[in-house]
Amino acid sequence: MKPFRIDVPQDRIDDLRERLANTRWPSELAGFGWERGVPLRYLQDLAEYWRTSFDWRAVEAEFNQYPQFTTEIDGEDIHFLHVRSPEPDATPLLLSHGWPGGFLEFADVIGPLTDPAAHGGDPADAFHLVIPSIPGYGFSTLRTTGWNVPRIAFAWAELMRRLGYEKYVAQGGDAGSVISLVQGLVNPEPLLGIHVNMLMTFPSGDPAELADLSETDQQRLQKLGEFDVDQSGYMKIQQTRPQTLGYGLTDSPVGQLAWIIEKFQAWTDESAKVPEDAISRDRLLALVSLYWFTATGGSSAHFYYEGAADVRAAVAGAVPPPQTRPVGVAVFPHDAFLPIRRIADRDIPTITHWTEFERGGHFAALEEPQLLVEDIRAFVRTLR
């Protein structure tokens, strides 16, 4: 375990600003909004704010107040935050991010989760937090192929073992949801339970499975089809040609910005006309900057390549091995995917907690941190 501090050299910050100033902008057809991609004037305004007003040093200061480390696991240097609660009997909680996220997305839940008494909560709901970065994301390296979800799940188990946690809860959204659930399959013994936001459920192909679906579930099935037709292009590129994609994302900050910001527009609460209506501009740019300064736009995409076969199997309706650990599910209504409960119960017979929220989208820790914190607390109370 090596202590770690975020300290991007000033010449990299200067280089970013110079590249932004020298951006070669494309033309734009008139008469369209977001349906063809990120609008030109919107992106120009956001890029100019990034160049002239965004303060990366403030991000460093915010996160350098928390203990950070790197440790070598299976050939990679894994970066993680380890934030212990002032409550000695706090429950260990492992938080896993997804794409296009990172450890920064948990900024607004760290305090309430670790020190609920200081945030108007019950000290009995306190957690010791471990927040690692997936290999190829942020400050975690990616030197070798083969880093699929099971391998990451084993690495997280090893990380928790090294930290001395014999029992803990796993939580995640997006890829972090899948990683957390697979932990329950490959190494269930240490897990007290698993909590996820963004649970994917796919029909098996048996018509009886979809008989008499409620109107809500029919809409969710339709949303799944719309995702495949209209929003899955990024996934198919990252599943097939991550190396090619990486050249543009690593060389052009505006290219990296557009690649990520489009997803924040598509997957946040639909009341948001622009992503900043759901998540502050500085939070959004902090995440984009993390990818830029670590040059991980391309390496993060390899996660999709490694998991492509598993995704195809899931979409085809393959039923995973049965979970043995209790599972809690938080459903935010404007997520990229919305689960169908009967299929969820088919795949996960140990669901003990299910919450349907009235607002929020894919990036729960950023959009609705209080709702997410309260739901994690409520689920973990059922495990005591």
Could you characterize what this model shows?
This protein has 384 residues and is of the alpha/beta class. It has 16 helices and 9 strands. The chain has helices spanning 10-21, 40-52, 56-64, 107-114, 149-162, 175-186, 215-231, 233-240, 242-251, 253-267, 281-294, 297-306, 308-315, 341-347, 364-367, 369-381, and strands at 2-3, 68-73, 76-83, 91-96, 127-132, 168-173, 191-197, 327-331, 351-356. A 9-stranded mixed beta sheet has the order 1-2-3-5-4-6-7-8-9, sandwiched between helices. α5 packs across α6 (175-186), α9 (242-251) packs antiparallel against α12 and α10 (253-267) crosses α11 (281-294). The radius of gyration is 20 Å and the shape is globular. The two termini are 31 Å apart.
List key phrases describing it.
single chain; 384 residues; alpha/beta; nine-stranded mixed sheet; globular
